[in-house]
Amino acid sequence: MQRLEQRSPNAILLLFLIAQTVDITMPVFALLALVAYSVSLALIVPGLLQ
What we know:
Layout: H1 2-20, H2 22-49
Keywords: Membrane, Transmembrane, Transmembrane helix
Protein name: CorE
Transmembrane segments: 12-45
């Protein structure tokens, strides 16, 4: 538990840095989510149709 407390300031700093670059990273995450969704559909739908 003590290790987690020592890492908390680093996590807060990391979240702050992510918030600063959210305009750049969010489209990338959205694109990755879209690709993952498409791949999962491509794998699931043929199995359902059989």
